[in-house]
Design goal:
With 422 residues, the chain is α/β, with parallel strands linked by helices. It contains 14 helices and 13 strands. It folds into 2 domains: 262 residues, Metallo-beta-lactamase, Chain A, CATH 3.60.15.30; 84 residues.
C-alpha cells in the first residue's frame, strides 16, 4: 500500500485528522499507483495520469511551483508514452500550470502536441485573470499569507472546449467529460467507466466545499450538489480529487459524494427559505447551520472554507450585493462611522471594552472586538495603542479560527496593524 493510500484510509477512519493533514498542505508531488495504469500525483493540488493505447491522459496538471515536477514524476513511470490529452478540471492556477514541459518534450521528440480540453467558459476565466492580475495577487497574498506571490498572466489556453458532456475514445478507452458549475463556472469532472475511476477536480477536496470564498467570484452551491449526486450514482471505486487524498471503495466514494451534496443542499435550502420569508442577510448568517449529523465527517470539516461564507455566496447569487439593511444601501464612509462611535464613547472606553471582550475570548466576543478595534484604528490611524489593540484582537481571531479563509484575512489584519507615530 502506498503512503497516500494509507493516509487516505487513516483520514477516513479518524486515525489522523484533516487539521494535521490539511488538503492544501500535505502533498509534495509524490506519484502513487492507485490502479492498473492509473497514477495519482499528490501535490498542493493533484493530477491523475492514465495510460491508454492512444497515449497518456492527464486530469489536471498542478500549480506554478510544483506543476513542472509533474513531468518528471510521469516520465519516471511512463518514460516513452506521449501525453495525448490533458483535461483541466477548472481554470484555477493551481491546476493548469504543468503542461509546459510536455509541450516542450513533444516539440523536441517530434510527437504531436498534447491536446488540452476544458469546459467552454475557461478561456474567459483566463482573460479575466489577465485583466485583474494585480487584484488576484493581492487577495491571494492575503488568503495564503504569501507576500511575494505574483499572479501569472501567461496561460496555456485549451485547444478544444466543450459544453454539456463530451465522450472521448482514447485508443479504445472511453473517457467522459462532464461540465458542471460549482466552485467555478468552468468545472469538468472526468469519468473512466471501464476503470471505475472518477477525477472530480475541486468538487470534492476533503474539506467543507469551497463554495463561499469571501475574496473570489461567484460559486454555485445548488448546481454543485447536483453534480455530486450525479457522480455518486456512477458506482466509482476510486475518487481522485483536486486536493487531498483519494477515496477508495465504492461505498466510501458514494458516501463522501452524497454527504457533501446533502451538506450543500441543506445550506442552500435554509438560506433560500429565509430569503423567501424576507429575512435580512444578517439574520440568515446567524441562523443557517449545516446538518448536525454530518458534523463529524472527516471530509466536511471547515478547514479551508466555511458554511457562513457559503451562505453569503448563495445570497449574492439570488439577492445581489445589498444585505437588506437600509443603513447599508448608501452608507457613510467607514471612517465617519468610526469617528462618531469612538467620539461618542471615548477611545479609552472603547479600548477598555475591547480588552474585556478579548478576555472573554468566545466567538461572539471576538467578533465584536474585531469591529470595535477596526473603528479605533479608522478613527485614529496613527495611534500606537489603537494599532496594538487591533493587532492583538486579530491575532486572537487567527488562533480561534479553523478555516484558511478566515485565518488568512485575520492574519493580514494583524500584520498590517503596526503602530504608527504617537
Amino acid at each position: 500500500m502506498t503512503d497516500v493510500l494509507t493516509l487516505a484510509d487513516q483520514l477516513w477512519t479518524g486515525e489522523v485528522t484533516v487539521e494535521s493533514h490539511h488538503p492544501l498542505g500535505t502533498g509534495r508531488g509524490a506519484l502513487a499507483h492507485v490502479s492498473d495504469g492509473v497514477a495519482f500525483w499528490h501535490g498542493f493540488s493533484n493530477a491523475t495520469a492514465v495510460a491508454t493505447d492512444a497515449g497518456l491522459l492527464l486530469a489536471d496538471s498542478g500549480d506554478p511551483v510544483l506543476g513542472p515536477s509533474l513531468h518528471e514524476s510521469v516520465r519516471a513511470w511512463q518514460p516513452e508514452t506521449p501525453l495525448h490529452t490533458a483535461v483541466f478540471s477548472h481554470g484555477h492556477i493551481d491546476h493548469v500550470f504543468g503542461i509546459g514541459p510536455f509541450d516542450a518534450e513533444a516539440a523536441e521528440r517530434g510527437w504531436p502536441r498534447p491536446v488540452v480540453r476544458a469546459q467552454e467558459s475557461m478561456p474567459a476565466r483566463f482573460d479575466r485573470y489577465r485583466l485583474t492580475a494585480g487584484y488576484n495577487a493581492v487577495i491571494n497574498q492575503r488568503q495564503f499569507g504569501l507576500p511575494d506571490l505574483r499572479w501569472p498572466t501567461d496561460y496555456r489556453y485549451p485547444d478544444e472546449t466543450y459544453r454539456g458532456v463530451l465522450t472521448l475514445d482514447l485508443g479504445g478507452e472511453p473517457v467522459e467529460l462532464h461540465a458542471a458549475r460549482g466552485e467555478t463556472d468552468d468545472h469538468t469532472w472526468t469519468w473512466l467507466p471501464r476503470r471505475k475511476v472518477l477525477c472530480c477536480g475541486d468538487l470534492f477536496i476533503w474539506a467543507s466545499p469551497n463554495a463561499g470564498n469571501p475574496q473570489k467570484v461567484q460559486r454555485y452551491a445548488a448546481e454543485w450538489a447536483a453534480a455530486l449526486r450525479e457522480m455518486a450514482g456512477l458506482g466509482a471505486e476510486f475518487l481522485l480529487p483536486g486536493h487531498g487524498v483519494p477515496v477508495v471503495g465504492a461505498d466510501r466514494v458514494r458516501q463522501a459524494l452524497s454527504d457533501t451534496a446533502e451538506y450543500l443542499e441543506s445550506l442552500h435550502e435554509q438560506t433560500v427559505a429565509l430569503m423567501n420569508s424576507g429575512a435580512r442577510l444578517d439574520e440568515i448568517l446567524h441562523t443557517v447551520r449545516p446538518p448536525a449529523h454530518l458534523a463529524d465527517r472527516p471530509y466536511l470539516q471547515p478547514v479551508y472554507d466555511e458554511p457562513e461564507f457559503v451562505v453569503r455566496n448563495i445570497w449574492r447569487l439570488y439577492g445581489g450585493w445589498w444585505d437588506g439593511n437600509p443603513a447599508t444601501l448608501k452608507p457613510p464612509p467607514e471612517s465617519a462611522v468610526a469617528d462618531a462611535v469612538v467620539g461618542l464613547a471615548g477611545a479609552e472606553a472603547v479600548a477598555a471594552h475591547v480588552e474585556r471582550l478579548l478576555a472573554e475570548g468566545d466567538d461572539g466576543a471576538l467578533r465584536l472586538a474585531g469591529q470595535l478595534a477596526e473603528w479605533l484604528v479608522l478613527a485614529a490611524p496613527g495611534d500606537a495603542r489603537a494599532n496594538d489593540v487591533r493587532r492583538r484582537v486579530f491575532e486572537a481571531r487567527v488562533a480561534a479560527e479553523r478555516s484558511t479563509m478566515a485565518k488568512g484575512v485575520f492574519g493580514w489584519a494583524a500584520r498590517t496593524s503596526a503602530p504608527g507615530p504617537e
